[in-house]
Structure formats: structure tokens, C-alpha cells
Design a protein that fits this description.
Elements: E1 6-10, H1 15-26, E2 33-37, E3 46-49, E4 52-55, H2 59-64, E5 69-72, H3 76-88, E6 92-95, E7 107-108, H4 111-114, E8 124-126, H5 130-146, E9 148-157, H6 164-175, H7 205-218, E10 224-231, E11 238-246, H8 252-260, E12 265-267, H9 279-282, E13 288-295, E14 302-309, H10 313-329
Parallel strand pairs: 1-2, 1-5, 5-6, 6-8, 7-8, 9-10, 12-13
Antiparallel strand pairs: 3-4, 9-11, 11-14, 13-14
């Protein structure tokens, strides 16, 4: 660990940025100097953290200060422009946008799964998509045991995944007042089968992120993955209905045992007593919750799962901070 650890949070005033600060405080992440960076409109404002007020700095100032670690949550265009500049200053950048995830020269990391891939010369590290993280957290240990053949996933994603303005749109609609619209349609009392931009093949960017990132993290390009991503009017917590086909057969009791013994996973699977994961119960939690574990009786070696996690926590902020912790623990920060 550096003699005087300098930590930067880029995008500190956004939903994920604020969650990163919460996670840093909760996990007592070590630092000697904290640098908070946000967009030009926020520069000069103050953010209170652990009883101390920090003045928001511009990204140019933040870069010149050469932090040891910078956790970025400021959007893809900012990351593409500034992550390499920070890296040139010797900073380890952990980036929460999609900018670097599929770059063949950058690692896409969920520490519990592929943290061992990180090396001392990794200066830009990609944090996966929120939906991907909770999916691979549940499937990775099963892939080790049974080898995944194909995954079909339908997501039910909170408005917090879009940001503060999306939350406000839903609350405005619920209150019957006007305001800025982030989505092309009403979101309150509705569901939108539309997250991110539609591509020429009819899939959205979000759906393709799940497909491509899952294969990269699990290190297996032979896995068939298809996704439908849906925005639902909830605040906090993404849910996924997952159908996973394996090369080798399983028993549901063994699947439950594997998942229950996997760090970061909580099994909630007692449908007779109405116990199953729900986003309302995962808010503020770092674990990934799995339930509705049952065999797909329509074909062999196939499992149905219901996976829920707080998208701002393990789906974004917590995973990013865990990457930083991993680098420190293994003396990959200098």
C-alpha cells in the first residue's frame, strides 16, 4: 500500500457515486486523502463524508492530483477521455461505465469469480454491468460444477439503474405532476421492454452487454446467452428470471447447497412459506439473493432460478470497491 493513499471518486454526486462513498465508509476502505470529482456544474459544491466537508473538484484537478486509485462512475464518454489520462499519472482506474468492458486489453472483474486475473500493470479495470454481475455471481459456481451450455435471462430492472432523473420521473408520474422525462413512455404502473439503445439486430445495448460480458467474465465463449431486459417501476433492486442449461446433470438440492456455500450469495428458497428474493428486501445489501430453484421439466440438464440484487450495491458500487480492496490486499497498488 502507498505511504499516503490517495483515493478519488469521479462522478461523486450521482446515484452510484454517492453509493460508492457509503460503501467506502461502511467497509472502512483505507485512504489518507479523498478527492471528490464531478461535472462542471457541481464543482465548488461540498459533500459531507465521515463528518468532514469535501469540495468537489473538476476532473482536470482530480487528474493532476494523481490519486493512487480512482473509481469512475461518470459515464462512458468521460471514461474514454479521462481514464487513460489518470492511468498515465499512475492511477488505477476502476471504471463503472461500459467504455472498457469489452476491450480485449482490459480486465472485466467480479473479484469472487476472476479477481485472480488482476496484475500489477492493470491500470484501467472495468466494472461489469449491474445485471451481469448478479447473474454471474449465481451461475459461476454452477458453471464450475456442471459447465454451462446456454443461458436465457429476462431482467426486471429498477429505475435507479437509469439515474436520479429516472427516479424523479417515476415519482412525478406517481404524484400526478409534470417534469423531465427520461423514458420515451410513462414508467409508473408500466413496464418497458427497452433498456439502452436498440441495435440493428433488434436487441438493445443492455441485452448485448449481458450476453458479451457473461462470456468474458466466465472465460467461455462457447456459452449461448440470450437476454430480454425490462425496466420496471421499482426503486432499488434488479431481478432476473434465469433458465440455465448445463452439459452435466444436477440435483436441485445440490444446487442449493453449492449456492448456499458460495460467498456473497444468500439462498431464499422456501416457496411454501412465500420466501423468495424480492428487490424490496435487498436494498442496501451487498449479497446476491437466489430462489425459485427448480428443474426445467421441458428439457434435460436445465435449471430455473430467480436472482435479485441491489443494482447500486453489488451491481455497481460494492463490486468497484471490492476490486480496489483486492488490488490493495495483493499489493498491486504502488
Amino acid at each position: 500500500m502507498p505511504e499516503a493513499m490517495k483515493l478519488a471518486v469521479v462522478g461523486a454526486t450521482g446515484l452510484v457515486g454517492r453509493e460508492i462513498l457509503k460503501v467506502i465508509e461502511e467497509r472502512n476502505f483505507p485512504f489518507d486523502e479523498l478527492i471528490l470529482v464531478a461535472s462542471a456544474k457541481s464543482v465548488g459544491q461540498t459533500v459531507s463524508f465521515k463528518g468532514k466537508d469535501y469540495e468537489i473538484k473538476s476532473i482536470e484537478e482530480g487528474c493532476k492530483l494523481a490519486p493512487d486509485i480512482a473509481i469512475f462512475s461518470a459515464g462512458g464518454s468521460t471514461s474514454l477521455e479521462w481514464a487513460p489520462r489518470f492511468a498515465e499519472m499512475g492511477t488505477i482506474v476502476i471504471d463503472n461505465s461500459s467504455a472498457w468492458r469489452m476491450d480485449p486489453d482490459k480486465k472485466l472483474i467480479v473479484p469472487e469469480i476472476n479477481g485472480h486475473e488482476l496484475m500489477i500493470d492493470d491500470r484501467i479495470i472495468a466494472n461489469p454491468n449491474c445485471s451481469t454481475i448478479q447473474l454471474v455471481m449465481a451461475l459461476a459456481p454452477l458453471h464450475v460444477k456442471y459447465k454451462l451450455k446456454r443461458i436465457v435471462v429476462s431482467t426486471y430492472q429498477s429505475v435507479t439503474g437509469t439515474g436520479k432523473d429516472a427516479v424523479q420521473q417515476m415519482l412525478n408520474e406517481r404524484a400526478g405532476v409534470g417534469g423531465t422525462k427520461v423514458y420515451p413512455h410513462t414508467i409508473d404502473m408500466n413496464v418497458l421492454p427497452h433498456i439502452d439503445v436498440f441495435q440493428d439486430n433488434g436487441y438493445t445495448k443492455e441485452e448485448l452487454k449481458v450476453v458479451n460480458e457473461t462470456r468474458k467474465i466466465l472465460g467461455d465463449q462457447t456459452i449461448g446467452v440470450t437476454a430480454t431486459t425490462v425496466r420496471v417501476p421499482t426503486i432499488g433492486g434488479h431481478s432476473e428470471a434465469v433458465n440455465a442449461e448445463f452439459h452435466h446433470d444436477f440435483t436441485c438440492s445440490e444446487v442449493r447447497s453449492i449456492l448456499a456455500n458460495t460467498p456473497g450469495i444468500i439462498v431464499q428458497d422456501d416457496p411454501k412459506n412465500n420466501i423468495y428474493p424480492m428487490p424490496i428486501n435487498t436494498q442496501g445489501r451487498d449479497e446476491v439473493f437466489v430462489g425459485r430453484i427448480r428443474r426445467d421439466e421441458s428439457q434435460p440438464n436445465t435449471l430455473n432460478l430467480w436472482i435479485v440484487a441491489d443494482n447500486l450495491r453489488k451491481g455497481a458500487a460494492t463490486n468497484a470497491v471490492q476490486i480496489a480492496e483486492f488490488m490493495l490486499e495483493r499489493s498491486l497498488v504502488f
